[in-house]
């Protein structure tokens, strides 16, 4: 039977998180748990302690890896929806309103009680972001709340790697997306995720996951001891039957599919101030091209435009005032 034309291009799945963005000196990182540059889960008490150490209140923005990608994809013109769980607070109301204004179908959000998820994004002078996250209501999303109906009428599902920490939930999401006939992309999201679930990931590649996004830290974690030959690592990942998109920040990217390999050239910026959200915007640009059936090289070029614009602004989102210029640059 022929499948009807999709009503939605992309459904994002992950934790809808309000980002609290703070610019801090390098020395501040000695006061927080975990390594620089990654993501560590914390409880509400630890979140409160870290916030109390800031010299000034942080800036607020909607965030979450897959949520950022979904939001940006909607701004680019894709028909999108999002699946994730918010709390019952004012952050949840503001979050849904912002996504609805961007054109995202918000009917598939799940709602819980208590606090919505928050992420403190600590931005150091080198523009690197270090994230500490309190998941709140997002952590209560259960497999029983997910079904193929969440992906009804959709062409593609984009899943954040953080979901893999809840193994049963992630498998339920993957199975539901497959049952709905979606192609699937997985953003590895953080090297901590890869370190914890490397073996499981390899069982999934090529078996219903079509695209894998990884940055330098994540691809090295996927292939420990293999060094930093990112072209070789992209080819190795692609050998598992996926399109491999290996992001290297300002150094560009390698994209591999089967025997086809593309090098995204380095992006030279003098005004980069915050890498928070850049990888998510890159993924949104790539998926926009992919779901518009553009060649891989063009997908990478659009992705680079999105990522390079995001780092020019504080926070994970490209501001409204910059979008007209972004759209003019997209081929």
Description:
The chain has one domain (8-16, 65-116, 136-329): Ribokinase (UDP-N-acetylmuramoyl-L-alanine:D-glutamate ligase), CATH 3.40.1190.20. Helices cover 34% and strands 22% of the residues. The protein contains ten helices and 15 strands. The chain has helices spanning 44-53, 65-76, 90-101, 167-179, 191-204, 216-222, 230-238, 278-291, 296-310, 323-329; strands spanning 8-13, 17-23, 39-41, 59-63, 80-83, 85-86, 110-111, 117-123, 129-134, 154-160, 183-187, 211-215, 243-247, 253-257, 260-264. An eight-stranded mixed β-sheet has the order 5-1-10-11-12-13-14-15, with helices on both faces. α5 (191-204) packs across α6 (216-222) and α8 packs antiparallel against α9 (296-310). The model has no long low-confidence stretch (mean pLDDT 93).
Describe the structure using short key phrases.
single chain, 331 residues, alpha/beta, UDP-N-acetylmuramoyl-L-alanine:D-glutamate ligase, 5-stranded mixed sheet, globular
What integer is the average pLDDT?
93
Instruction: For the record, give the distance between the C-alpha atoms at the N and C termini, rounded to a whole number.
Output: 35 Å
Tell how many strands the DSSP assignment holds. Answer: 15
The CATH architecture can be given as 3-Layer(aba) Sandwich
Taken from the alpha-carbon principal axes, the silhouette is: globular
Strand order of the largest sheet: 5-1-10-11-12-13-14-15
- What is the alpha-carbon Rg in Å? 18 Å
Order of helices and strands: EEEHEHEEHEEEEHEHEHHEEEHHH
- Main sheet makeup: 8 strands, mixed
Number of helices: 10
């Amino acid at each position: 039977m022929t499948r009807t034309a999709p009503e939605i291009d992309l459904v994002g799945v992950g934790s809808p998180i309000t980002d609290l963005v703070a610019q801090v000196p390098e020395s501040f990182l000695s006061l927080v748990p975990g390594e620089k540059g990654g993501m560590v889960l914390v409880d509400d008490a630890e979140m409160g302690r870290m916030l109390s150490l800031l010299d000034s209140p942080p800036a607020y923005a909607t965030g979450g890896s897959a949520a950022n990608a979904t939001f940006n994809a909607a701004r680019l013109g894709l028909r999108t929806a999002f699946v994730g769980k918010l709390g019952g607070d004012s952050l949840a109301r503001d979050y849904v309103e912002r996504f609805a204004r961007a054109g995202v179908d918000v009917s598939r959000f799940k709602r819980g009680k208590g606090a919505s998820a928050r992420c403190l994004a600590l931005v150091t002078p080198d523009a690197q972001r270090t994230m500490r996250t309190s998941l709140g209501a997002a952590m209560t999303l259960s497999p029983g709340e997910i079904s193929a109906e969440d992906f009804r009428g959709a062409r593609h599902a984009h899943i954040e790697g953080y979901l893999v920490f809840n193994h049963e939930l992630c498998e339920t999401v993957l199975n539901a997306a497959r049952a709905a006939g979606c192609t699937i992309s997985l953003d590895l999201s953080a090297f901590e995720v890869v370190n914890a679930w490397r073996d499981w990931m390899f069982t999934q590649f090529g078996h219903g996951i079509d695209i894998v996004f990884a940055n330098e830290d994540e691809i090295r974690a996927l292939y420990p001891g293999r060094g930093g030959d990112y072209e070789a690592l992209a080819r190795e990942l692609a050998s598992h039957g996926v399109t491999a998109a290996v992001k290297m920040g300002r150094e560009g990217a390698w994209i591999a599919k089967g025997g086809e390999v593309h090098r995204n050239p380095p992006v030279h910026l003098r005004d980069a101030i915050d890498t928070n959200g850049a990888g998510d915007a890159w993924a949104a640009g790539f998926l926009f091209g992919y779901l518009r059936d553009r060649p891989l090289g063009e997908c990478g070029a659009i992705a680079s435009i999105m990522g390079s614009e995001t780092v020019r602004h504080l926070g994970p989102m490209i501001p409204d005032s910059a979008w007209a210029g972004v759209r003019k640059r997209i081929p």
